[in-house]
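Figure 6 in text form: structure in, sequence out.
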C-alpha cells in the first residue's frame, strides 16, 4: 500500500525472494505540477494499490529507471494503458515485449522538466541508471546506485547486505562498484548529483534517508574519487 513521504510524494514496497534471498523493492510516486502521477520503478499492481493511485490522480508516466528494475513494467503498463512508458537506454532491446517503451534521455522530459532535474549515470553500462532530484520536496531518487539495508532482516538478507557493504550504512554496493567501466565518467555524474541541494534520499531497496542525506551520499560517492 502507498505511504506518504512528503506533499505530492509517496512510496509502496514489494517484498519478494530472489534465489532464496529475502528482498524488497520500492516504487516511488510523485504528483507532478500538472496533476498527473509519475511512477518510478513499478511494483506489482494489486487492486488496492490501483485504487489508491486513482485517488491521487491520473498515472501519466511509468519509469523503469535502470536495466534491472523492469520486472513489473508490463503489469503496470497494462493497469494504466494511457500512461507513457520510459526505460533506461538499452532496456528496449532487453524487453522487446513492452510496446511503446521510450528511452530516457540525458535531460528531463518536457512533461516533468518543471518538477525534476535528472542525471544519467555514465560509466556503468550494465545498469544505465538515471537519477532524479525532485525540487519541491528536495528529494534525491535513486535506484541501485546507493543502498542502505537496515532494520530486522532475515539471516540471508543481513549476510548479503554485509557482504555488499550496505548493512546499516548508505553506500555504493560492492556489486555496483564491480560493474564500473569508466570511473571518471561515474565521478563526473556523481559531482552533478551532489550539486543538487537534496535533503532526503529515496532508494529502491530498504531504507529512506531523512537526516544528513547529502552528507551520507557524499561519503558514499567518495569511492569514485581519484
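Output sequence:
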Amino acid at each position: 500500500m502507498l505511504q506518504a513521504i512528503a506533499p505530492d510524494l509517496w512510496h509502496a514496497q514489494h517484498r519478494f525472494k530472489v534465489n532464496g534471498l529475502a528482498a524488497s523493492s520500492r516504487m516511488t510516486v510523485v504528483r507532478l505540477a500538472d496533476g498527473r502521477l509519475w511512477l518510478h520503478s513499478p511494483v506489482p499492481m494489486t487492486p488496492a494499490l490501483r485504487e489508491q493511485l486513482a485517488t491521487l490522480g491520473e498515472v501519466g508516466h511509468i519509469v523503469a529507471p535502470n536495466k534491472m528494475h523492469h520486472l513489473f513494467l508490463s503489469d503496470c503498463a497494462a493497469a494504466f494503458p494511457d500512461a507513457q512508458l520510459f526505460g533506461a537506454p538499452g532496456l528496449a532491446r532487453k524487453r522487446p515485449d513492452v510496446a511503446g517503451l521510450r528511452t530516457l534521455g540525458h535531460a528531463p522530459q518536457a512533461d516533468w522538466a518543471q518538477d525534476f532535474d535528472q542525471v544519467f549515470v555514465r560509466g556503468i553500462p550494465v545498469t544505465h541508471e538515471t537519477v532524479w532530484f525532485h525540487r519541491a520536496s528536495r528529494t534525491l531518487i535513486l535506484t541501485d546506485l546507493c543502498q542502505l539495508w537496515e532494520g530486522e532482516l532475515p539471516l540471508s538478507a543481513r549476510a548479503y547486505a554485509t557482504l555488499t557493504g550496505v548493512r546499516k550504512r548508505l553506500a555504493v554496493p560492492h556489486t555496483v562498484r564491480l560493474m564500473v567501466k569508466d570511473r571518471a565518467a561515474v565521478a563526473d555524474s556523481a559531482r552533478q548529483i551532489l550539486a543538487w541541494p537534496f535533503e532526503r534520499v529515496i532508494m529502491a531497496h530498504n531504507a529512506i534517508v531523512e537526516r544528513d542525506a547529502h552528507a551520507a551520499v557524499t561519503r558514499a560517492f567518495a569511492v569514485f574519487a581519484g
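Caption detail: The CA atoms of residues 133 and 196 lie 7 Å apart.
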